[in-house]
Amino acid sequence: MLLWSIQHQCTYEKMEQTGVLRADKNFIATDWFEDSYLWMAEQMKKRIGEPPEGVIFPVWAWYQWEGMRKRLDMRVHGRNWGEKGTPIVLLTIEVPDNLVLLSDFDNWLLILNNDFVTECNNGKEWDEE
């Protein structure tokens, strides 16, 4: 499966040296997101199986952008990733289908921010809670 992943440049350089792309905890906002990332890692274990030894966090990648099978345009969206001046790269990666867990980006953001996920996202369930 062809995917796209935004990574810090040093992650890319490490991947070039080792031949392996791994999530680096140093570049994850673990103070805010660690519980959510660990939850997703557990979902991956249930659906995909155990990760390679030493792997804790998943590598995030896009299968599609803006509802279409395309990569995001870094000229437009690149400034949204990392602080100004942070060297980032957009990687095109090929991953075996059986090692990918696709998720809905908007719903993932709700989980990431400890928000409430509703079945129909129309506000009615919020009122019932």
Keywords:
129 residues, 11% strand, 35% helix, two-stranded antiparallel sheet, alpha+beta, 5 helices, globular, single chain
Outline:
With 129 residues, the chain is α+β, with helices and mostly antiparallel strands. The chain is built from five helices and two strands.
Describe the structure.
The protein has helices at 9-18, 30-47, 74-77, 105-112, 124-128, and strands at residues 2-8, 88-94. The protein is of the alpha+beta class. Strands 1-2 form a two-stranded antiparallel ribbon.
Give helix and strand order, one letter per element, not per position: EHHHEHH
Uncertain stretches: none
Mean pLDDT, to the nearest integer, reads 80
Taking strands numbered 1, 2, ... along the chain, how are they ordered across the largest sheet?
1-2
Give the end-to-end Cα distance, rounded to a whole number of Å.
39 Å
Note the topology:
Elements lengths: L1 E7 H10 L11 H18 L26 H4 L10 E7 L10 H8 L11 H5 L1
Antiparallel strand pairs: 1-2
